[in-house]
Structures are given as C-alpha cells and as structure tokens.
Amino acid sequence: MWIENVVCPFCGCLCDDIAVEVEDNRIKSVKRACSNGRSVFLHAPTEARRPVVDGKEVDWPDAIDAAARILMKSASPLIYGLSSTASEAQRKAIALADLLGASIDSTSSICHGPTSIGIQSQGEPTCTLGEVKHRSDLVIFWGCNPVEAHMRHFARYSVLARGKFTPQGRKDRTVVVVDVRPTLTARNADIFLQLRPGSDYEVLITLRAMLKGARLDVAEVGGVSVAQLADLVERMKRCRFGVVFFGMGVTQTGGKHWSIAELVALAAELNAHTRFNVMPMRGHGNVAGADCTLTWQTGYPFAVNFARGYPQYNPGEFTAVDLLARQEVDAALIIASDPMAHLPRQAAEHLNRIPTIVLDPEMNLTARVARVVLPTAIYGISAVGTAYRMDNIPLPLKKVVNSPQPTDEQVLDWIIERVKT
Amino acid sequence: MPKFILITGRTAGQGEALPKGKESEDYRQATECIEMNPVDRERLGLQAGQRVRVRTAFGEAVLVLREKELPEGMVFVPLGPGANALIGAETRGTGMPDSKGLEVEVEPLCG
C-alpha cells in the first residue's frame, strides 16, 4: 500500500510530498525523498524494545519510577534535545522542567542559538518558503550548504522551484553563494564570493555601509574585492524579492550573534528599496518547533532555567554545553538527541559522571552511557505529531507504520505524573 | 608544525549514515576523516587514505586524510566524534562553541 503526501521528519525542509510503500507494517520503499530522508524511513526501527535501567531490561512502570527518582533527587537537572521530537512532546518537556525547577535547552544552542540572539536585537524580516518559491528573484546562501544538508531545498523552495511569478524556475533567479570554501552549493551559483574564514562580520558591515552610500578606501574586505561587494549591493537593491538563507557558517564563526544581527539589519534596511528577507536553514526536523514551543511557553527560545520558579533566559549560563562543561548539572534527561555524539567532548563527558535518562527511538551513543533508556516511537514514521518547518510553518506528521513503543509525549506524561505523586 | 584553519560541518555522507546508527561502518567512514587540498597534502608529504593525527588546543583525533577542493591552509572535518574531540567547550557567553575557524595541526600518524 502506498501512502501519499507523507512529511519527512529528517530536516527543517519537512518535505510533505513523500510517498511511502508499506507492507505488513514494514516500509518497503520511498519515493521523492532525498538520500537522507530515504535513509530515515528505510532504517526506522519497528521492533518492540523494552526500557533499560542500569543495563537490565525492565517493565515500563519500573523504568518510569527509576527516571522520576533520578529527577526528583537532582538539585540541578538538565532537560536537553527536543529537535527531533514533536511539539506535543516539547510542551510536556517544558512542563516537566517547570515542575522540577530544571534547565531546559534544545539543540538550537549549538546550531541557530546565535540567530535567536541576533534576531532579539534586530527583529526578523521574514517570509514563508512559499513566498520564496513564488516570488524570489535573488537567492543568497550565506555559510550554508543545502546541496548536502537540505537536499531538496533547491527543487522545492528556492533555486529551481517554479512559482506564480517565477514560472521559469532557475532562469528567473540569480543565485549567490557566500562561503569560505567552494561547496557543492557554490558550484550551482551564478556568483560565488569566497570569504576569508572569520570575516563574515566585517563583510556584512561593509555591505551595510555601501548600501548607505559610503565610499571605501580599500580594495578588498574579507578576501572579496570591493567591486564584487558593490555589485552585490546593487543586485540586492534592484531585485524584486530577495532572500538570504544562512547557516552554521555564520552562527559558529567568530562574531556569532553579532554577525547575525548585521545580516538581519542589512535585510531590514534593504526593505527601503525592495522586499528582502532572511531565513535560518534549520537542521533537525523540528528544531524550529523547539524554539517556537519554548517561546510560547516561556517567552524564550532556548537556554531557559526554572530554578526560581519562573523562566529565566541566559545563553552561556543555561545552555547545555556550558552547564555540562562547568559540571553545573547533576542529572540529565535527553530527549530525541545524541549529545555524546554532537557536543564537544569536554562537555559531553559530564554525561558519563551524572545519572542520564534517554528518550529516543534509536540506541545512540548517549543511550550507551545512560542509566535509564526509554525507547519511544518515531514521530512522522510510527507516531503522529506536529513539527515546524524552517519558516516556522507547523505541519502535521503522519504515522505510516504501527509501533509497539509509546510516544515521547506519553512517556513524559508518565514521568510528570510520577514526579507529582 | 604547519597550522590550518579547521572548518567542521555537515556532509551528505554523514547525514545519510545517521539513521543507520552511529556505530555503523558507514557513519564511521563518513565522519572519521579530514579533507585537505592537494597542494597542502603534497607539501606535508601525505597520501590520500593515510591516517593523520589532528590536534587543537582542546584535543586530538586520528582521522583518514581525503583530498578535496579547499582553499590552501584550510581543512574540513564532518560533524561527528572526530570533530567533537577537536572543538573546545568554551562558548563566550553564547552557548555556541567555536565550531569553525579553530587553529589545527595535522601530522602523519607514526607507529
């Protein structure tokens, strides 16, 4: 049986045109997905798995009891992850953090956390991917590589997509790539500006200055000639609808949120000339949802702490890397993420020292060191739920196979009930 | 010892191997490598496919060398355990480690 219009939960593109063939509750084949999406569907675990406590398989009530005891005993717990679970589960995780007085942070803090900080200072000229598809005639990719990380972004939303005012797709657009290396995305660009590593901030303030008419007495900035930068400014002013998609090339380099603030300010100022927007290329399937859900629940998108009984926000203090590296947490609940595989080793190794609880469909590296492992269903494959696309549009995830596992939302509910009693 | 600028990031191979599990051979091959341009590789007398020791101020990793079109003086390591060993945990009040732009040393693995 073919199931049509399935949303792929892998990355922030949330492609909603996937077809999945299911026979006897097994996924046989996948149509239209990229290689990443195909791999997610075809390797999804569907076999029954029992929870594990201290290396031994146990029944669910005992596992929930063990998890709740760890969290209740903790003076300073951390709840972390959230980017590959549904927003229904994210909401429960926040309720649990509130109940425990815990810190709660998502993987945003190591991807687009600086974007949130930059946007908090400048606002966000933004749009939907539908508007990009139908209207954009200038598409800039800055410090991101969608050909390898968001493989269908070109075809569905940006470079190749044919829309109402872009009937010829690629021919109707100018594509600019700004990066420190010639990525596969750069090979598809009309214009490639190769920056010197760490010079995003100075190039961005230069573009803002040039937009305001400043004359520069230098020949190049950040490895790019002033003539090339002047040409880019003219193209940005003259386009009908421009957009800058940006990624970790900006958020993980040097000025981080300062660079983002300059980029956002540049886009905002271009709106005096034309329509111009920015959009972060969100990595995990519902990392945008983690920001949205945390924001509507607490007022803040990540790095939140409930120790005083109300939400406080402070990146650098309540962010996972800092809390773990400074050994300021004494228990961790990891939801749909693998910090042992993705955080700097100096931070991740603290998870070896403290009791850690893992909610995840996969047996990942963090589960290997966890005291309690709670295997759950996969949203978008074996459970329904809501995820937010990179343009913050919520989409309903389908269930294409049945799973014997409970969802993250159910398990968090059980832990909350146990903590309350 | 020659210094390089380290860029870490996603690759198609790393993304595709993720759902197969982090203990899979595909994931290991996709992540435990370092890319360098041919000019730097020849200058260091290294061969593609050779194992090299990569060191930053925060840690070190043993990775397999691959040749790639990159600016001279830059090396690239895909996201994964190798990259995590090289990146420090200091975030300068942002929550975000310096995952790109670190200074790194590359040397052939002896013994």
Task: Characterize the structure shown.
The complex is a heterodimer of chains A (421) and B (111). In chain A, 36% of the residues lie in helices and 21% in strands. Chain A has 421 residues and is an alpha/beta fold. In chain A, the strands form 5 sheets. Chain A has a 9-stranded mixed beta sheet with strand order 5-4-19-18-17-6-7-15-16. Chain A has a 5-stranded parallel beta sheet with strand order 10-9-8-13-14. Chain B has 111 residues and is an alpha/beta fold. Chain B has one domain: Barwin-like endoglucanases. In chain B, a hairpin with a 4-residue loop joins strand 3 and strand 4. Chains A and B meet through helix 1, helix 4, helix 6, helix 10 and helix 13 of A and strand 1, helix 1 and helix 4 of B.
In short:
Chain A has 421 residues and is α/β, with parallel strands linked by helices. Chain A has helices at residues 35-42, 60-73, 87-100, 113-122, 129-135, 146-149, 153-156, 200-211, 226-238, 248-251, 257-270, 287-298, 320-325, 339-342, 345-348, 350-353, 365-369, 408-420; strands spanning 2-6, 18-23, 26-31, 52-53, 56-57, 77-81, 103-106, 138-142, 174-179, 191-194, 220-221, 224-225, 241-246, 275-280, 304-305, 312-313, 331-335, 356-360, 372-375, 385-388, 394-397.
